[in-house]
Model the fold of this input.
Amino acid sequence: VNELRWDPTKKEWIAYATHRQDRTFLPPKEYCPLCPTREDSDFPTEVPRPSYEIVVFENKFPSLVRNAPDPEEEGSEITPTAPGRGVCEVVLYTDDHNMTLAGLEERRIRNLVDVWADRYEELGSLEFVDYVFTFENKGEAIGVTLHHPHGQIYAYPFIPPRPKKELDAARQYREERGGCLHCDLLSQEHEDGRRILAKGDHFTAFIPFYARFPYEAHVYARRCAPSIVSLDDEERRDLARVLKRLLVGYDALFGFSLPYMMFMHQAPTDGGDYEEIAHFHIEFYPPNRTAEKLKYLAGSETGAGVFVMDAAPEDTAQELREKIEGAAL
Amino acid sequence: LQLAIDIELFSPVNRNYREGEGRADDCLRHTGIYDLEPDGGGGFLRVETPVVRAFRAAGESQGRIETLDKEREPKEDGRYIIFYHFEDEPEEEQE
Done:
């Protein structure tokens, strides 16, 4: 089954891709499908070369496919179905199985920024793609099935609900007050200063005033850049620099490689007007609230949509900022 | 005398329509910056093609980013794989 089903109670599409149940699950290192295929190996991986820098390929177990079949379930007037059309790509950061994004040299993260931009541009130009969503799940606590350093890109045939809610809020803000909501939020964070984690020349990392996770961090472009494609060379270099500082600080926080979800929010590619509405930024969500304890999405968070935080962003920001400033790059 | 030249790049209709052999919307050639789609009232709507997005993205980057060096290859099962190559720049000295 590869189809979308409409939830009219929340006005959201749910993607069904039942073939993913059989995807590779935490294989031993010598059978990692994302490592290069070594010349003396009898195990061909996804990458048919003995080494590589950055590689992108179509996901073998995609949630959305280019040539999606008609839905198997017909649905109804109030619960329609649709083909699960889209593109799912895997982005391999390096051929070093034991590396992480945090451990990459800054210039390699800079290269990765270019690849992210290239994918946004190419996938976003597809007629059926309305939103290019770049993300990384890191660590078993997040549910990763492969440890090799990699991220993913989903090119959706619609604007997903979370970015849409954010865009709708920014549009309303622009109409009612003028200007960009995200620019004003960033100004507020700069003026307050207590939740700032790291500042570069063009990007700022901070824990938002309204953080849902103790060590949640947002990395905002200071200029109102709608997408990663619109960043110039200096901005891309600075983004790599700020990401490196934040990630090294994350790993210094508890003394181990911190799991997280990372994703980008930027302008949809549906041809709409997103001037002063879409503001490129990256969000990080580590699940840890301490070294040993995770924050779970329990009753209030899942059932009511109300996050309950047991740590103040001002305190966790100070703790993480000290780690960032003290960490050797 | 002021001359206004208005160039609009949209999908043209082919010769079949001129020769009266088909409905206009059956004779469109989708080659342009805009597609024409019937508006249900006998007219057409101008709808952006993916070319517009590609131009817009290129405009946003203001040509400041050089084209990436990449190789695209088909995989045996029909998927694609892209290899990106970068010049090995020396790391900037840390202060």
Q: What stands out?
A: Chain B is about 15% helix and 25% strand. Helices of chain B lie at 15-18, 50-60.
